[in-house]
Specification:
Length: 398
């Protein structure tokens, strides 16, 4: 199940609903804070994974055993690169998972039992639930000013006589607010669980990116001359495209899907690391032309969602494939290379020719309806095979 994001996750945290579906974890066996401090993301012998992971905190956070104290240890006062899912609203486009935040007043004082004056602990909040973070802050650096328990009265949190949370560091798998401040003073908040933060591109510590960059630069030469394969989900750009055009996925600069050779060997002729953006790869096409592709930092950083851990070089090539998938039948391979689909084709093979669907809905009879490239509607049987299809725009084809 895709993790909930943005306002939905904030509401689920408030209601305590998301946590109900997560297994209870005992404190025993929780990775120590030293794991986060000593994990060397630039070392191929990192003990947190098989040696090819660039962002070990993600694996630890995704374990279901992380405490609020460990989240604070990893992020509090650290510089991070902020990102998120863009809600396209034109000039007012926003990052869905982030909200503009504010700080509660902390000027009032009350007496504690020992007669001392104690300052009421300030918390951060979202003044307007629909006030998202403007997209201009995407990929910008910010400093984490606090990591606070989303519900200060959640089970496991204890307070002193002033009502201040004094012991919440040991809460396992907490719902928390990550609050950041940008250089212009803007405050923003995202509400997450450790696992949802680990499996999304919302906040990557700058020290992790810097360490990853060193290893990327060291191993980039091994890409040159490597054979890779493009599939329907591989995006290629014209050789004169700028990094901004590629990062913004400028349609005018993309190589049309019909012109991308699928599952035929392409040779990597050049590769370059672009700070905070990722790795730009230049490949030679069969007709002699060249094309560019970007392996973004999120693609490099995110842990695998299942199956075999990719090697470092496989991470570097992003949405290219290192080999032809062995599960494909000869008929499927022939169809993919010709850019066509047929009745009975498996969904597994369909994605290699059409890419990932824009939209997926249940058809009501156990099957599914998939929309690709906003123009092709494909009906799948309850066996996961193509039943039929139609073009929403008759001028376009697969």
């Amino acid at each position: 199940m895709k993790p909930p994001t943005g306002l939905v996750l904030l509401l689920l945290c408030s209601a305590g609903l998301y946590a109900q579906g997560l297994p209870e974890q005992a404190i025993a066996g929780v990775p120590t804070q030293a794991n986060l401090a000593t994990a060397d993301v630039s070392s191929p012998t990192d003990s947190t994974a098989n040696g090819d992971e660039l962002s070990p905190w993600r694996t630890l956070f995704n374990s279901g055993k992380i405490t609020l104290g460990q989240v604070r240890f990893a992020f509090l006062h650290q510089d991070v690169i902020v990102n998120g899912t863009v809600e396209d609203l034109g000039r007012s486009s926003q990052l869905l998972e982030w909200r503009i935040a504010a700080k509660t007043p902390a000027s009032s004082q009350e007496s504690s039992p020992d007669g001392q004056k104690a300052l009421i602990q300030a918390r951060y909040f979202v003044p307007h639930a629909m006030d998202g973070l403007p997209v201009r802050y995407s990929r910008k650096k910010a400093n984490v000013v606090t990591v606070q328990l989303h519900d200060p009265e959640a089970a496991g949190a204890t307070s002193n006589a002033m009502g201040e949370a004094v012991s919440d560091d040991t809460i396992v798998n907490p719902c928390f607010d990550l609050v950041v401040r940008f250089d212009d003073g803007t405050l923003a908040m995202t509400t997450q669980y450790p696992a949802t933060l680990a499996t999304a591109d919302l906040a990557e510590p700058v020290w992790v990116i810097n360490a990853a960059a060193e290893r990327i630069k060291l191993e980039l030469p091994d890409l040159i001359g490597m054979g890779v394969y493009a599939a329907g989900f591989t995006e290629l750009y014209k050789p004169d495209s700028t990094i901004d055009e590629i990062m913004n996925q400028d349609d005018a600069e993309k190589v049309p899907p019909a012109d991308i050779p699928l599952l035929v060997p392409l040779t990597v002729v050049a590769a370059k690391y672009v700070e905070s953006s990722g790795v730009v790869i230049e490949v030679q096409l069969p007709d002699g032309d060249k094309a560019l592709a970007l392996t973004s930092m999120p693609q490099l950083m995110l842990p695998p969602l299942g199956g075999r851990e990719p090697t470092f070089l496989e991470r570097l090539i992003g949405l290219f494939l290192a080999d032809i998938p062995p599960k494909l039948t000869k008929r499927e391979l022939t169809a993919i290379r010709s850019g066509s689909i047929y009745r009975g084709m498996r969904e597994y093979a369909l994605e290699y020719v059409m890419g990932f669907p824009d939209k997926e809905t249940n058809s009501g009879n156990g099957g599914k309806q998939l929309i690709f490239r906003k123009s092709l509607l494909v009906n799948l049987s309850n066996w996961g095979t193509v039943e039929d299809w139609k073009f929403l725009d008759q001028k376009q084809g697969p």
